[in-house]
Amino acid sequence: MRQRDLDVQDVGQIAETGAVPAHRRIDEVTAAAHARALRHHEGAVADYIPILASADPEAFGVCVVDVDGGVHGIGDVGTRFSIQSISKAFVYALLCEALGHEEVLDVVGVNNTGLAFNSVVAIELNDGHPMNPMVNAGAIATTALLPGATAEDQWDAVLTGLSRFAGRALEVDDEVYRSEAATNHRNRAIAQLLESYGRIRVDPAEAVDVYTRQCALLVDARDLAVMGATLADGGVNPLTGERVVSAAVCRDTLAVLTASGLYERSGEWLFEIGLPGKSGVAGGLVTVAPGKVGIGTYAPRLDSAGNSVRGQIATAYLSRALGLNIFASDSHFPGGNLA
Ligand code: GLU
């Protein structure tokens, strides 16, 4: 059911987010999470975009940024890599901010496709409706809907917006951009299909070009943690103090990430870690504990669904050891006995 059918438009949202763990505790647990995941060497570096195959498979950084602005990093937290699919989460937030809850829901959708991130079949099965902004069809539609008279204006909105999330001026990795632009036939086909269904109204080639550039933006684990912490902090970047998006947009974006942030493994991820997150094929992973922290990890070896192996292990440790799982609760009555 939708908001208007649920009759809750006039009911204010109460935030019950619990306490931010103590800084020393976050430092200790971050170090332990890194040490634990470092023992793992499973998975393979992505190579479907040729340049990604040259990443150091052992690179590994974990960073936690809390909503008080504390930065807790260990390992390769300053190693830069392309943001890839993680950009989808933040561009989606920018679009929600520009267009609003109802309109974005109508055009892009929020339900899982159950199919691979670059599926064409998913579009056909839904009469050309993209269904979900975390897979390529929905993500390309999202980028194509950004305000701006030209593709350059839309690119400017992406670059400025994601830089505000990160709290610094981000740049494109030209080599990654060119490597993907030369091989992204499937994404171009997806954009043309969306155009044929009237789902995008801009030049599909230009929409894919902006999308490809957004995927090639360079970030590090610390940036991802800051970007995640901004979503954890109701839309205010805890390091710069700047409001990037509204609290309602953060809530909507995190709901989408909770349902579909880790490709076809989103259910397993939620079951084990219990937090909204988004992964990318270059090995980045951002996770958000609302009202508490953002977690950024970088480790390029991926599982078969495209999620960083060490990133998932470290984040699972952090979620458990810092009590971040949004579904976990203790009994309100000590001992659990009501009588
Ligand atoms: N640029 C990538 C693509 O569209 C993003 C892949 C990803 O991180 O899932 O194929």
Structural overview:
- The chain has 339 residues and is α+β, with helices and mostly antiparallel strands.
- The chain has 2 domains: 3-84 and 217-321, Beta-lactamase (3-Layer(aba) Sandwich), CATH 3.40.710; 87-215, DD-peptidase/beta-lactamase superfamily (Beta-lactamase, 3-Layer(aba) Sandwich), CATH 3.40.710.10.
- The chain is 45% helix and 10% strand.
- The chain has 14 helices and 9 strands.
- The protein has helices at 3-6, 23-38, 86-99, 101-108, 121-125, 136-145, 151-166, 174-181, 185-196, 204-215, 221-232, 247-260, 266-273, 309-321, and strands spanning 44-45, 61-66, 71-75, 81-82, 218-219, 277-279, 284-289, 293-298, 301-302.
- The strands form 3 sheets. A 5-stranded antiparallel β-sheet has the order 3-2-8-7-6. It has a two-stranded antiparallel sheet with strand order 1-9.
- β6 (277-279) and β7 form a beta hairpin.
- α7 (151-166) crosses α11 (221-232).
- The chain is globular and about 60 Å long.
- The structure holds glutamic acid (GLU).
- Glutamic acid binds at residues 84-85, 117-118, 136, 180, 187, 215, 280-281, 306.
